[in-house]
Amino acid sequence: MKIKHVLILGMTGLFLTGQAQVLPYKNSKLPIADRVEDLIGRMTVEEKVGQLSKLLGWEMYEKSGNNVRASQKLKDVVKQQHIGLLWATLRADPWTQKTLTNGLSPQEAARATNAIQRFMVDSTRLGIPLLLSEEAPHGHMAIGATVFPTAIGQASTWNPTLIQTMASAIARETYAVGGKNGYGPVLDLARDPRWSRTEETYGEDPYLIAQMGQAMVKGFQGEKIGQTDKIISTLKHFVAYAVPEGGHNGGSVSIGERSLLQNFLPPFEAAVKAGAGSVMTAYNSIDGVPCSSNPWLLNEILRKQWGFNGFVVSDLLSISGLNGGHATAADAVDAAQQSLNAGLDVDLSGSGYNQNLLDAVKTGRVDQQTLDRAVARVLHQKFALGLFDQPYVDERVVDKKVATKEHIDIARRVAREALVLLKNEHNLLPLSKSLKRIAVIGPNADNMYNQLGDYTAPQPDEKVKTVLTGVRAAVSKDTKVEYVKGCAIRDTSASDIAAAVQAASKADVTILVLGGSSARDFKTSYQATGAANIESGASALSDMESGEGFDRASLDLLGNQLALLKALQATGKPVVLVTIMGRPLNLNWAAAHVPAIVNAWYPGQEGGMAIADVLFGDYNPAGRLPISIARSVGQLPVHYNHTKPKHHDYVEFDAKPLYAFGYGLSYTKFAYSDLEVTLAEQADDFECTVRLNVKNTGARDGEEVVQLYVVDEVSSVVTPVKQLKKFSRQAIKKGETRELLFHLSKEDLKLWGLDKKWKTEKGKFTLLVGAASDDIRLTDGFTLTKDYSL
């Protein structure tokens, strides 16, 4: 009888389990739309509002030895708020106070996310798993993950195919430990390098940014959302965040509608058309309307015109900013209703919506249909990701997917292709590996965190290859390499220029590594948004002069860096300057006096090896600048594609930048020839084919970045003096000639007309083909006989 009783209970359990499995929202065979509709119909208002709250994730686990479990805080907030998402659960840095000791290794990270999801599935009424969003702009911001060059370096490769490969590696690592949503790419158009976050952008040109952005989205997401080793991409920051007045991070933006439509929005449109699953609103306002409560941006442009069907998320605390810094909402409830009604679905913070949104719903300021629509967008992505069907990760395969040799090799390749040779007088570079004595000097020569950029987790010492490490690995065993720091980035009390001069005087060549730093430290205080608090004139100076919150009034090298450079140059020994930095800095003196300059931006964990590859000739550099390097802040903005008329010179110097957009040298030479332009006009479009030959006329194999610019000679509205429309990075062996083809259509030449419609106008277009925006080798043109509507 006892056995029979147990059997009956077991059968009852199976029956009940089977019954639960066939609930429509749990039935994986049903269309996602049906599953979403069924689940929303079962949810209370409180559960719906909770699905729109994304909280700080690093507080949601507890670690004790090798044991990782869901924290009491998670259990409390789930009970109180019914949350639907977490952000930066696996993040580690000084702001989060997570270190190599109390943070999570990749294996522990997988256990933590599994524990969190297990609690959600087993201990909540509806068993809705969380969507875990992670910072991932140049690698997953978690302990153990591969660190790639920051975005400004990625853009310097001018190689979208490589960047897609890199993004796939980032997605694989993030997915392996439980992240299903990566923050990136950043699609901000950077035209004021005083702004602290320039390093996070792809530069100053909308077309180049669009190409890089599409590559990141495709690498993150694959062919469709829900593939193994793929994650949802969140586009940042929508929109025009990178041109704040005075360079003040998060400040207001003064641009017109036409500039917004033609310059700032196209990269986002391209990434949305590539399938991006999420978009983040920017902190700033545009023409008096905060981006987090702008229905024209979020509903009209993003959803109606572009067909975006993912979810929109706020930047951290930006909803609260409506009744805070922006002062456009009377109180927190007003801010919540403004944002949701404008089309902002998810609150990154958990404090912007929550009770405020509940109050707005209960008082009728947000209707049920609007709430349900936002919830549906979030749930749709959860179902598409397969979270309901498989919320857990396989802890056994983490080591096979995170920081693999393949990913480390990709990091080195991206860093190499990103390096920009700015100057090489008398072919000083490449250096011989058999030099007797080399001095490696500078604050960034052997500082691993200074070469990684912002949004980077703590790293073990042996993981990051500095320039000193790379040089020692590259030269022969008979070469003596002497290292002297010389000075800090900012702190003038930490200088020993005399020792640096002594080392340089004895060396055959000096490799001097200067620039900036975005390395966060535990001494700096941080705002609730994660941006740094800046104390002008503070007595204790970190190296950090870039990174979120570190806006600049000048672009000069800080501290005693220029003094160190001048002292070393005065020794009479050749100096090779390597710049590691997050924004274009003032290189005027170096450009006039130093024979060789290589710019590396923030080159990531393999940066030192990549730099050595270039310095000693194992790799022929071909990186190109994605942003102009100004001579002075007085020139700003100095982007190459400013609107007509052409700029005239200043009293002090000419209006040209020191180094222009698209610029970069090689150890070989290339000749351009045989430009041929053909035009075929049809009823509703045209095809312009541009054909040319590029020959490597030097003594080394190399790569050339061929750039095609267009000038609209006469237009109904003012257009740029020139605009990049196509480019191609080509590997060409010495003596080889490569034929290149570019194709232009009406989409490439459109403008926002006086009638507020997109069109390509009839008339003459001049084509400029060359190696940089200011190095045009071939010129031709064509004439359209009619207007083309879009």
Briefly, what is this?
It holds the Pfam family Glyco_hydro_3. This protein has 790 residues and is an alpha/beta fold.
What does this structure look like?
This is Beta-glucosidase. Residues 704-773 form the Fibronectin type III-like domain. It is a single chain. The protein is of the alpha/beta class. It has 4 domains: 1-27; 31-394, TIM Barrel; 413-627, 3-Layer(aba) Sandwich (Rossmann fold); 670-789, Immunoglobulins (Immunoglobulin-like, Sandwich), CATH 2.60.40.10. Strands 11-8-7-6-5-4-1-12 form an 8-stranded parallel beta sheet. α2 (32-42) crosses α14, α12 packs across α13 (354-362) and α17 (467-474) crosses α21. 57% of the residues are buried.
Number of strands: 28
Low-confidence stretches: 1-20
Q: State the distance separating the first and last CA atoms.
A: 79 Å
For the largest sheet, list the strands in their spatial order. 11-8-7-6-5-4-1-12
Radius of gyration: 27 Å
Q: With helices defined by DSSP (H or I, 4 residues minimum), what is the helix count?
A: 21
Helix content: 25-40%
Topology:
Layout lengths: L1 H20 L10 H11 L2 H7 L1 E4 L4 E4 L2 E4 L1 H10 L3 E3 L18 H18 L7 E5 L15 H6 L3 H17 L4 E6 L19 H16 L10 E7 L18 H8 L1 H8 L4 E4 L3 E2 L2 E2 L4 H11 L5 E3 L18 H11 L4 E2 L5 H9 L5 H17 L13 H4 L3 H14 L1 E5 L12 E5 L25 H8 L5 E5 L12 H10 L2 E7 L45 H9 L5 E6 L7 H6 L2 E4 L7 H9 L54 E12 L4 E11 L5 E11 L10 E10 L4 E8 L6 E2 L5 E3 L2 E10 L2 E10 L3 E2 L1
Parallel strand pairs: 1-4, 1-12, 4-5, 5-6, 6-7, 7-8, 8-11, 14-15, 14-16, 16-17, 17-18
Antiparallel strand pairs: 2-3, 9-10, 13-18, 19-20, 20-23, 21-22, 21-26, 24-25, 25-28, 26-27
Helix pairs in contact: 2-14, 3-13, 7-8, 7-16, 8-10, 12-13, 16-21, 17-21, 18-19
